[in-house]
Fold this protein.
Amino acid sequence: MQRPDAELFAGRAMDGLRRIVHALHLGTSTSERAVGLSSAQLFVLRQLHAVSEQSLGDLARRTRTTQSSVSEVVARLVRRGLVARERSSRDRRRAVLTLTAAGSALVAIAPETVQDRLVAGFGRLDPDTQRMLAEAIEAWLAASGLADVRAKFFFEPNDQPLPESTAIGSRGQSP
């Protein structure tokens, strides 16, 4: 049986996580209604708008994710004509991503994403709190048997199901 304070902390942590997930869901719905893009796609467009001519690696760093995750989102944006892949004007050996005119026009009218707000809020925390929060979330994932689940953009299509060892229900009920 858990101690009462452990139950309280677990409840606070789960409620915080629920609020984040709920905000992300609402943000994606708002973004899809406003501009026809997921909030992850809009977040990527905003990062390209902020800094022109980024490589895929640069964009992965700016979006705080992996190259493989951001490349899936970029591919959708390229197919929609919102992002172009071209040679860098500074180094012709380097491929870069830029917004098209349609991508720039869309960013100008699009709502702010929850991801933008979360990243900005994280940046306002002091460095010790940033480190502690990152380490605490990683420890929580490890203790929950979820450390090996691949991090992807929130609510992007074609997510793969969890492996059997981490699937909800394989260790009991999900809260």
Notes: Residues 11-142 form a domain with the Arc Repressor Mutant, subunit A fold (CATH 1.10.10.10). Residues 72 and 156 are 9 Å apart (CA to CA). The chain has one domain: 11-142.
